[in-house]
User: Which sequence fits this backbone?
């Protein structure tokens, strides 16, 4: 049987990085083929080549046995290859239907006018086939990330794609939504669509993938059947060594002084009377489903968004935080879930990003920046956190996701904040880098820092937290001790109070 | 540290094509080609007197372009640089001619007027969140109107202020080296550009200017007081407009309330030709200087070749488009 897609000997270099070296990949019709590897292993690059986003330096791509040249995303689409990017690429100010059919809108009056009615009807038909309840006329900007993702998938479906590439599609989805997504994937699979599934979540791979291909450092490591290969084997293929799965966290130090306390945080429906505290040396997990208001609370503590009411106490003393600079002055650091938009200045180099929150420390009396000191600090953290970068003057946008996250962490470590808020610290980060980040969080807590960690992955919450605060619909529904069960967390996370129950 | 440095080497060549230096070399060679071309076309062009003419003609636009560069790198735009320059020159006239204050008060006073005016724009933009285009469009008209109102639409002459014209047209260098009668105005231009380049590359203000233009939200979440720094950028740009105001008033020995409008576009043109991105986050003062010089060289060269003025404008417009297209090509080379 001829493979639907066959990529062999793919080479690709970027300035300063040899991203792919003799990479290969094949995909059959009607299969879900997982592509795994650590960040920077070249998965996304390889798939972007298949989708026409990048052009390869060397190698061959065959579609149904025929060699093809894919020079642009448009050509890829014509060949039936669609990619759903990790960073959603929707036009935020347009509606769902307008996004799906952009450039292909049905026309009326001899092609002079856009047929908005037909447009919405066609979009509604796709949503219906996906069992998705969504108004095609809703502006994308107002949707949750999960719903935006569904719009992206609907867009891909509208092309009648034969090859569908999904780059970490579940990163922002809750369990119910993931189940919906998997139902859609199963349906597409039955229709003979080949699906490339990039993910770091082992349980998902086990649930839906037929085969798994592992990449490391831009090279092909191996292709194995998903069902019969143990997870440990896949992980060791990814990292090139065997990982021990250390779970136990040191017990919470109940006697340690309280570092941060918030009382009565309130803002509309998003934050409804939230109060909690975190002690020195403690990791407080903040759990909840998407849209539970965790990020909103974190941003409010940090002063990034205003609140209607709420008091903050740092080391027992009340502080007024109206802007991020007040929070930073009070010793609070915030690592955003959206690194590219809020965490990094991607066009600037690693050195400057690391120094950005502590510039005054690198300013001489005359107001001149001490580049040498900035370099020393950056190089120190590049070593300490093993940030993979050719140098401290590499632009941040050229680093992989895990390494970008490390740069953001370095920024706040340099600032020496005693209170750190991590918002989804391992989103989009591979297994190997994840355990490094976990170790880092543990050692930061051991140093006596107070840590609030928001995460949508329950195993992560359970593994790291000394205590777990759970939110649902803007309310704090309970605080659990470390070592609680997933069921207890889910019970609190779904403890709804609102009069309107969401339609299933 | 040595390790970190040696690792840089393999990527150096690849990075060079995307580096600001590469662009500056392109723009600089463009300037050289234009200069050589005009020199071949007319022997009058490369005479010392004419070169000094070109530099002198660049001084005012160059200084305004320095101000515009700062604001544009921060991700903003300043349409008020031209009429703020006029307003500052009129205020210099008020201080020295109307009130009879000495020059050592009048000149710094005019710069302070620029600084304060820039702060007002900065306040509107940073605190009231008015888009820079709108805020400075409004200020552009306000400065123009106020300038006309102050002096009753008539020029203020500096004939009573001794030595005022020397600021721009005198030559300190020429007094020392008679073979090089470079006017002070040109020296001021290079000094202003040099100081601005220093601020941009070596101080926190400069670093935040780039960061703001690159990703303002990330900078805010780093705990940086964005509003204050933004106001500082516009204030500095305003003070530099004050310098331009003094230069132009000194050169024509009067404050002309009706000029200034349109200068902002020449300044922005110089910035853009110099490779600064209008989207913010990227740009250099050296590039802006080269951009300003290219505009002057073209204007001067075409005039010497007796090309009518209307066609000179067409050529300048074309250069803007060619320069930016070159920049886009460079962006592609960088991505591939």
Assistant:
């Amino acid at each position: 049987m001829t493979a639907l897609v066959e990529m062999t000997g793919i080479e690709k270099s970027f300035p300063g990085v040899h991203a792919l070296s003799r990479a290969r990949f094949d995909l059959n019709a009607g299969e879900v083929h997982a592509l795994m590897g650590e960040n920077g292993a070249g998965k996304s690059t390889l798939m972007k080549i298949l989708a026409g986003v990048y052009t390869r330096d060397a190698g061959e791509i065959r579609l149904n046995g025929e060699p093809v040249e894919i020079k642009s995303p448009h050509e890829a689409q014509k060949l039936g290859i669609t990619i759903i990017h990790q960073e959603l690429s929707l036009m935020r100010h347009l509606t769902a239907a307008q996004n799906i059919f952009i450039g292909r809108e049905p026309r009326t009056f001899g092609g002079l006018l856009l047929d908005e009615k037909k447009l919405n009807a066609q979009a509604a038909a796709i949503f219906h086939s996906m069992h998705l309840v969504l108004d095609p006329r809703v502006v994308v900007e107002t949707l949750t990330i999960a719903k935006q993702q569904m719009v992206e998938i609907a867009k891909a479906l509208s092309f009648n794609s034969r090859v569908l590439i999904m780059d970490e599609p579940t990163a922002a989805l809750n369990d119910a939504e993931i189940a919906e997504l998997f139902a859609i994937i199963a349906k597409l699979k039955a229709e003979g669509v080949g699906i490339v599934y990039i993910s770091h979540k082992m349980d998902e791979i086990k649930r839906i993938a037929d085969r798994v291909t592992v990449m490391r450092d831009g090279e092909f490591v191996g292709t194995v059947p998903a069902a019969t290969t143990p997870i440990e084997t896949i992980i060791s293929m990814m990292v090139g060594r065997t990982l021990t799965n250390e779970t136990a966290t040191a017990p919470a130090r109940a006697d340690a002084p309280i570092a941060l306390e918030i009382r009565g945080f309130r803002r509309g429906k998003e934050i409804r009377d939230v109060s909690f505290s975190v002690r020195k040396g403690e990791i407080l997990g903040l759990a909840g489903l998407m849209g539970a208001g965790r990020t909103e609370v974190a941003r409010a503590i940090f002063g990034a968004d205003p609140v209607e009411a709420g008091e903050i106490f740092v080391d027992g003393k009340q502080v007024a935080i109206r802007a991020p600079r007040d929070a930073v002055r009070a010793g609070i650091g915030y690592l955003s879930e959206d690194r590219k938009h809020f965490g990094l200045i991607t066009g600037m180099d690693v050195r400057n990003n690391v120094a950005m929150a502590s510039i005054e420390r690198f300013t001489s009396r005359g107001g001149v920046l001490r580049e040498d000191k900035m370099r020393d600090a950056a190089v120190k953290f590049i070593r300490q956190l093993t940030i993979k970068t050719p140098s401290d003057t590499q632009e941040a946008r050229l680093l992989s996701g895990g390494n970008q996250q490390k740069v953001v962490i370095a920024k706040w470590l340099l600032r020496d904040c005693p209170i750190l808020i991590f918002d989804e610290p391992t989103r989009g980060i591979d297994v190997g880098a994840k355990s490094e980040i976990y170790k880092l969080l543990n050692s930061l807590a051991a140093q006596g820092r107070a840590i609030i960690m928001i995460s949508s992955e329950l195993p992560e919450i359970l593994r790291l937290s000394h205590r777990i605060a759970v939110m649902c619909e803007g309310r704090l529904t309970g605080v659990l001790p470390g070592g609680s069960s997933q069921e207890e967390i889910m019970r609190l996370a779904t403890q709804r109070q609102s009069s309107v129950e969401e339609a299933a | 540290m040595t390790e970190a440095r040696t690792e840089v080497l393999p990527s150096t060549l690849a990075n060079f094509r995307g580096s600001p230096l590469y662009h500056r070399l392109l723009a600089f060679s463009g300037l050289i080609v234009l200069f050589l071309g005009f020199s071949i076309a007319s022997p009058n062009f490369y005479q010392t007197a004419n070169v000094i003419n070109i530099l002198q003609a660049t001084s005012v636009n160059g200084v305004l372009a320095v101000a515009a560069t700062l604001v544009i790198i921060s991700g903003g735009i300043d349409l008020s640089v031209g009429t703020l320059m006029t307003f500052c020159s009129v205020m210099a006239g008020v201080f020295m001619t109307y009130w009879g204050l000495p020059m050592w008060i009048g000149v710094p006073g005019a710069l302070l007027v620029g600084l304060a005016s820039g702060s007002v724009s900065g306040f509107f933009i940073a605190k009231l969140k008015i888009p820079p285009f709108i805020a400075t469009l409004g200020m552009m008209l306000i400065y123009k109107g106020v300038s006309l109102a102050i002096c009753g639409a008539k020029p203020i002459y500096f004939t009573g202020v001794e030595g005022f014209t020397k600021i721009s047209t005198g030559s300190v260098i020429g007094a020392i080296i008679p073979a090089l009668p470079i006017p002070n105005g040109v020296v001021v231009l290079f000094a202003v550009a040099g100081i601005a380049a220093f601020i941009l590359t070596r101080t926190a203000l400069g670093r935040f200017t780039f960061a703001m233009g690159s990703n303002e939200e990330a900078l805010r979440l780093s705990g940086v007081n964005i509003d204050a720094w933004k106001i500082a950028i516009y204030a500095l740009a305003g003070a530099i407009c004050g310098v331009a105001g003094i230069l132009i008033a000194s050169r024509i020995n009067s404050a002309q309330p009706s000029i200034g409008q349109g200068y902002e576009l020449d300044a922005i043109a110089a910035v853009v030709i110099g490779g600064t991105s209008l989207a913010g986050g990227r740009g250099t003062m050296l590039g802006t200087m080269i951009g300003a010089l290219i505009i002057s060289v073209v204007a001067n060269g075409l005039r010497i070749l007796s090309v009518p003025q209307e066609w000179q404008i067409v050529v300048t417009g074309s250069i803007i488009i060619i320069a930016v297209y070159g920049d886009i090509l460079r962006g592609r080379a960088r991505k591939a």
Notes: Chain B is about 75% helix and 0% strand.
